[in-house]
Amino acid sequence: MTENKTIVWQNRLIDRVSRSRILGHNSCVIWLTGLSGSGKSTIATSLENELHHQGVLTYVLDGDNIRHGLNNNIGFSEADRKENIRRVGEVSKLFCDAGVITIVALISPFEEDRNSVRSQFSNGEFVEVFVKCPLVECENRDPKGLYKKVREGKIPNFTGIDSPYEEPKNPELVLETNTMSIEDCIKRLIDYLVENPINIFSIKENNT
Ligand SMILES: Nc1ncnc2c1ncn2[C@@H]1O[C@H](COP(=O)(O)OS(=O)(=O)O)[C@@H](OP(=O)(O)O)[C@H]1O
Ligand SMILES: Nc1ncnc2c1ncn2[C@@H]1O[C@H](COP(=O)(O)OP(=O)(O)O)[C@@H](O)[C@H]1O
Q1: Domain spans of the chain?
Q2: How far apart are the CA of 187 and the centre of ligand 1, in A?
Q3: Which residues does UniProt mark as catalytic (predicted)?
Q4: Is 37-198 CATH 3.10.250.10?
Q5: 205 pLDDT band (50/70/90 cuts)?
């Protein structure tokens, strides 16, 4: 972190618990990581839809969309991906503090970067979900025609092809999208959110 002694943290009167009381639920970050085409965006969209209809305030931070705005100066080099994840991590922290169930869909290929984001949250607030799907199946799906372009030599540094993807070692959840239906994945996620450290529907009184 850059040290800047001319900048002083400002305390505020309204905290996250107060906001959660108004909303009627807790907040956390659900961080979907996986190869292109593994199902991150599909799961993020379906999960948001399901939670929204249960009266939960959600927001999806999807890599593709964030790269149209906040991160439109970010490419796909290792350094750029790291900065992409750092920024989205910071934004997810703000959204979570605002009381929103924040669903992140980013390839986020490097374990160190994901762990760095995780380290900024309390136990249970950061839910890492490995959206697991074999590369061959992702390429077969090719929902945006990107793998085809990669094979034609039109996209360099593509994750899983000529840029690495480090699988999570201890994710909270693994969703194997080549064997599970989308509905199964959403059910598994919702069950996790209710049963595990942060039950989103029971407001925790000791988080600040
Ligand atoms: N070189 C390369 N490698 C991987 N992906 C690429 C690349 N170029 C463009 N795209 C498109 O960008 C989306 C990935 O952006 P992310 O911000 O999630 O990537 S990262 O976390 O910074 O690695 C990714 O979206 P998803 O397919 O939804 O994963 C692709 O559509
Ligand atoms: N269980 C599943 N979960 C998510 N997507 C699935 C699943 N099974 C099949 N798919 C399909 O896989 C594709 C995933 O594309 P997408 O969500 O854009 O992936 P990503 O965001 O990881 O690049 C979609 O066409 C989706 O319908």
Answers
A1: 37-198
A2: 26
A3: 108
A4: no
A5: low
